[in-house]
Amino acid sequence: MRYTLEDIARKAGVHLSTASRAMRNDKLISAETSSKVRELAKKLGYRPNAMARSLANQKAMAIEIVVSTIPSFANPMLVQNLVGVYEIAELNDYDIFIGTSEGTVQDWSTVLRAFQERKADGCLVFIGSDDFVNDPPDKLFSKLLPVVFVNNMVRHQNTGSVNFDNFQGGYLATKRLIELGHKRIAFIGPGKERLTRERIRGYHRALKEAGVKTSQELYVERQYDMTGENGATAMKQLLQRIDFTAVFCSGDWMALGAMEVAKSQGLSIPGDISFIGFDDIHLAAHVTPSISTVKQDGEKAGRIAAKILVDLMKGNAVPDGNLDITIPVELIERESIGPAPR
Asked: In this model, does residue 198 exceed pLDDT 80?
């Protein structure tokens, strides 16, 4: 029987990532734990085999992860995604390296070069902008190199995608505000990304079902950031031009910024204005008032995307034959929403 690192971790009573670090003599792991794991691995005849498999199969035994820019790593959702990816990569003895791209055809050269130099056997792409998928390079796909997109979708042979149900998220958030009596519901978010357009579509569907009229003045387009500044700017703009009683923000950071502006103007949350965000970042539950939000399981998305990619790289049939996965979302109610003011 050939033991895997997962077997070693289970028998040692530690997490998979802990076993992996122990095998690499990571200083973050205690000497006692490291010794326990390594002795067990030796006893069972386990050896890290990425290099051996690479030589035998003419594979790099590596996955390339492409993100938009280095500051993306300040995004809590991306960090959750990567935790899930690393878990599956370790389980299957794949190394990981990371590249950046703005999604332009020119930037794709970085991805292509990695494949051509045999530095990676497959690619996970974490870029949501439509610019990225409007004109993907044919050279990438002509080689039938496995690519899985997260929070975006490209229809092509040997590609897969993992997305959250953003339409349902937008619908659930807006429907709940309507149930609380709100009819003037503003929306803050970027317009360039497919996932945001799906959230807007859900927002409009809920309003239409309830017979609530929409207004372009209730929509402010702002890009995502990890400071809340864009949400704050959008909120100031809304307060200057139109009356409303609730705001649906296409991200928790936006909601944080918008709520700070509301509080600075002496407005009560949720007495005067209710807020709902999206993502359920850790901070959302620990600010005052805590933020109602649409929860996405980032680690789950990372695991699913990595599993699909590994199957594609190994030439295995993907379970259920489904290369395009949509993950359900969940509405989390906290202190930032309440009945519409009378």
From this structure: yes
